[in-house]
Structure prediction request, 709 residues.
Amino acid sequence: MSLAAIDSTSPTPQATAILPQRGIGDRLSALFWRRPEILLVVLLILPLGWLTVVYLGSLAALLLQSFYSIDEFSGLIVREFTLRTYLELLRPANMDIIIRTVTMAAAVTLGAAVIGFPIAYYAARYARGSWKALFYLGVMLPLWSSYLVKVYAWKLILAREGIITWATDLIGASAVLNGILALPVIGGNSLSTSYIGTWLVFLYVWLPFMILPMQAALERVPQSMLEASADLGASRLQTFRTVVFPLAMPGIIAGSIFTFSLTMGDYIIPQIVGSSRRFIGQAVYQLQGTAGNIPLAAAFAVVPIIIMLIYLTIARRKGAFDAL
Amino acid sequence: MRQLKLMGTTALVAFTALSPALAQIAELGAPEGQVNIVAWPGYIERGQTMEAFDWVTSYEQATGCMVNIKTANTSDEMVALMNEGGFDLVTASGDASLRLVAGRRVQPVNLSLIPSWNTVDPRLQNAPWYVVDGVHYGVPYQWGPNVLMYNTEVFGDQPPTSWNVVFEEMTLPDGQSNRGRVQAYDGPIHVADAAQYLMYHRPELGIVSPYELNQEQYDAALDLLRVQRTLTARYWHDAFIQMDDFRNEGMAASGTWPFQVNLLQADGVPVASVIPVEGATGWADTTMMHVDAENPNCAYLWMEHTLASNLQADLSVWFGANPVVPAACTDGRGMQTAEGCTRNGFDDFERIRFWTTPVTRCESQDECVPYYRWVSDYIGVIGGR
Prediction:
């Protein structure tokens, strides 16, 4: 293509500035420049494909399964749309499992918030230099060792002939321990076979997931606001109630989403520590096995999703995500 | 076009009709150099866990077939792996073996190619969990009972003789109640243990097999299990957690496998085991061959090896199980002894009812409660319903 040819076809003098194309790379970049949406599609096709096919696809398959039912007589799965499987969730034994799991998740979240807040507050506002590093390390350290080892270790700690019983015997406080274990519902034969034990282990395992977002939120609370609050005559409690706590709320909510959903989905801890009463994860695991009751397992698996959606909606209404 | 379709269908019919016959080989050829086996953990040892327990090296040296092991933790995993394909053999339990046969995932075995077949325990040679319509779909591998383990310090000189110590509230010989001091298996198959207890104590229910229960018999078993829930602090699922509970939780009695009893005794924990008057449930595993096994010659050589070598004796010591070749108890081919076999329940075969999957269409009555209901109802019982 000669300059003369360009001159003859294009009336604008700028056209002479266009260089001749030098191959496939130029042509591609020209295409992407003229049609930016093509570049967008090329870049997004892989991650979007992953998200829709693998991620949402499996969720859709799960949802679909939950609308099937199992034939009472033959035990075969009937592939016809029905809500019968969801109705089965309302049976007392199944409701027990859902209520048990949600209550435990709520208790763990509450416990983690109460225990985690002072730690996060100190680490964010007072710890300096190597102390700060130590705090980070201390919070993160449990995450570096195997989850199973930690749970087994806790089983030994909580056992009837374990270190806690031994220590309470030593200081003559075994009456207190026995009193706690004699409590209805949450008590049991020993700490490791009671709900208290399960709660303690959950609390230990998920606590870092509560502390870290809380600490991040507390670090973002500007010092100037605390000073302003003090200048205006607020007491420490008032400052905490009206300044620090509301500003730390997004962190607490973020942490609670972690602890709540992780507890709800776990099926290992209640199997090792506790009274063998099932949690949702265990029920799903057992129902999809030899039982072949995949519809009910799927319906059970949908429950945490719905609860989390409700939870997130409430959190959003409360303005928890405004700061994110 | 129609002709083509017809040819296609005819070929397909011919192929499906012929394939079972084709699958069974008539004589052994040259070994292929490897064999792929799906097995329970700890079932196929090559001396890596403990040097003394090795029943693979001698096979590899003798045949040149390298053994590749894929372990599976549940019967469901085994069935899934076999459905996927790519394996030659599987050590299937009674709740998987018939499913594999029904799903045409395993092929009939030509027993004439396994010279040691006639050494197999006659009690197992035609066992219903792997022989269908007189056709053998594999060779027995190992079996064992679910025994009653008890703490010898608690029971002293009055060892338990009945499963009632784990099913009904009572005062144990040490003067304390058994409440909170007994355990039960947390798998739904434990309903069969309750049914077996009722078979003995409430004959009017007319239970013929603990795996074939009608609604009334099933309800009675569940009622018994609800009593057991009030006595049980924790159900056991993992063998090592149960062993820990006998060490640290003051457990007095529980159903268990000889595996845990042997390991605890070796550790000096004061426990012993018994098969009570009601009898016991048990498991029996079979080596089965995939219908499309790529290494049939090595697979046949392995099946022969399982029966003829030190495997039967050493595995039974290792796992607390029983050899399927009675001679392995006494002929010194491995570490097992006659006393060891007796301890693992070898002489109690008649009193053991082996695990099978409960199905709706059962043999002994019109209609039985199928396994999926055992699962959901046992979850309810453990949850206190």
About this structure: The beta strands of chain A are 69-70, 77-78. DSSP finds 15 helices and two strands in chain A. The longest helix of chain A spans residues 92-125. The mean pLDDT of chain A is 87.
